[in-house]
Amino acid sequence: MSDKVNVKIEGKQKSYPIYIDTDPIDEIKDRIMQSIDFQNFLVVMSEKVYKLYSATLGFDKNDIFILKDGEIEKNFQNYQKIIKRCEEKKLNRKSALIAVGGGVVGDITGFAAATYMRGIKFIQVPTTLLACVDSSVGGKVAIDTKFGKNLVGAFYQPDAVFENLNFLKTLDERQLKSGLAEVIKYAFIEKSCNATFDYGLFDFLSIHYQKVLDLNLRFLSKIIRVCIELKISVVSKDEQEANLRKILNFGHTYAHAIETITNYKQFTHGEAVAYGMFFIFNYAHYLKIIDANYKEAATDLLKKFGFEDKKFKFDKKKIFQIMHSDKKAENFDIKVILPLMKGYVKEGTLDKNAVLKAGLL
Ligand SMILES: NC(=O)c1ccc[n+]([C@@H]2O[C@H](COP(=O)([O-])OP(=O)(O)OC[C@H]3O[C@@H](n4cnc5c(N)ncnc54)[C@H](O)[C@@H]3O)[C@@H](O)[C@H]2O)c1
Predict the structure, then answer these.
(1) Is 261 exposed, middle or buried (0-12, 13-18, 19+ CB in 10 A)?
(2) Residue nearest to atom 4 of ligand 1 (CA)
(3) With pLDDT > 70 as the criterion, what percentage of the chain qualifies?
(4) Is the CB of 245 under 6 A from ligand 1?
(5) Are 278 and 186 in contact, with CB atoms under 8 Å apart?
(6) What is the DSSP letter of 38?
(7) Of the residues 245, 246, 285, 295, which is catalytic?
(8) Catalytic site residue 231?
(9) CB distance 95 to ligand 1 below 6 Å
(10) Helix (H) or strand (E) holding 34
(11) In whole angstroms, how far apart are CA 16 and each of 136, 139, 223, 279, 305?
């Protein structure tokens, strides 16, 4: 039995469904075929997902492009290989690209779908928690280049997203936690998302964190649905990040800096975001933007999920340089999303002297 969330982006005609369920994985293929109208197709899967699920999913091997695992594979060469397979299979504008995997597969497949023949159908089957709550929702698709992560991309909404929570059972602890960091982020930004409903995600996570860590699918599906609805409420009003969508970058300025300086080898994206959130809470507390009570409550929530408030000895100058060159930076200021009080955030500027005085780098 599917739970369904409909996505409608303001100013766009197209709307699409996100299905969330715990039905048998072997039903996904038929459900895709029955609910979306397309001719031929190509499925893109990461190597690990292929090994774990290709037999159950039941797609023909000739219809699958296998992408090696890792952020490094979200590159131009693999994009070209996917396009070549589309061409060999004679995919046309009525065809579909289907991404089965985490954010890496979703991003590169989405970019291929957005650009092949100026756009073909695109279906997402996210298999990591991060992809369920974040990367498969909102229509950002991209590849990395040697000049920057996600530097070449598009805003391209899918035709449908099929989220099946059974995939999450095979995630290792690190990958699960990586997704949880993005989940916790929504608790910190919830009240600024302009959602019509007050979900109380912060308190819900504070109470039920152990059930989430134990992979209780009933609680997880509730949380995933809330995160999706919060993300949609932001993205539907500001698809292209002119304003409101920036709040989704809470914790991400520092996160991108430590991911970049370590060549994406030391941290998962979620781990980096968790460190980025500790960083910005400490910074906001130092400048008295938030009080000690909120800082304690927020950092406690992160710690409940096993994240640590850790300082790293990275080259300070380089970290600032990377923050300056972030796509989100404007002119000479480093723009960040600051916490204000429980669930509320706003955009502000990072004061480098304050960062240094507070000993945050
Ligand atoms: N488009 C967006 O809005 C957006 C938002 C956030 C992140 N991202 C992107 O998402 C990417 C990170 O995504 P991710 O965290 O899903 O990482 P990922 O796609 O690299 O997946 C992590 C690992 O888990 C494996 N895996 C996937 N599903 C599995 C399963 N069910 N069981 C076991 N292993 C499984 C993958 O094969 C891979 O080895 C980054 O490239 C990031 O830039 C995009």
Answers:
(1) middle
(2) 135
(3) 98
(4) no
(5) no
(6) -
(7) 245
(8) yes
(9) no
(10) helix 28-35
(11) 12, 11, 20, 36, 32
What is the mean pLDDT of the segment spanning 333-347?
A: 96
Q: Could you give the CA distance from residue 300 to residue 281 in angstroms, rounded to a whole number? A: 11
Locate the domains of the chain by residue range.
3-170, 183-357
Mean pLDDT of 255-262: 93
* pLDDT tens digits along 42-96: 999 999 999 999 999 999 999 999 999 999 999 999 999 999 999 999 999 999 9
- Quick check: CB of 75 below 6 Å from ligand 1? no
pLDDT in tens, 270-305: 999 999 999 999 999 999 999 999 999 999 999 999
Centre of ligand 1 from the C-alpha of residue 163, in Å: 14
Please state whether the predicted TM-score (pTM) of the whole model is above 0.90: yes
For domain 3-170, the CATH architecture is 3-Layer(aba) Sandwich (3.40)
Q: What is the distance in A from the centroid of ligand 1 to the CA of 309?
A: 24
Query: Residue 208 catalytic?
Result: no
Mean pLDDT of the chain: 95
pLDDT at 12: 85
Report d(CA 110, CA 137) in Å as an integer. 11
Annotated catalytic residue 93 = no
The question of whether 163 is a catalytic residue gets the answer no
Instruction: Give the C-alpha separation, 341 to 323, whole Å.
Output: 24
Q: Which CATH architecture fits 183-357?
A: Up-down Bundle (1.20)
Q: Is the CB of 276 under 6 A from ligand 1?
A: no
Distance (Å) from CA 42 to ligand 1 centroid: 19
Q: Is the CB of residue 303 less than 8 Å from the CB of residue 309?
A: yes
Residue nearest (by alpha carbon) to ligand 1 atom 7: 135
Residue minimizing CA distance to atom 6 of ligand 1: 135
